[in-house]
Amino acid sequence: MKTLIRLEELALFLFSVFLFASLHFPWWYFPILLFAPDISIAAYRAGPRIGAWVYNLVHHRGLALLYYVAGLALAIPVLGLVGVIFFAHSSLDRALGYGLKYPDSFGHTHLGHIGGQAPRV
Question: What's the rounded Cα separation, in Å, for the pair 104 and 121?
Answer without folding.
Answer: 14
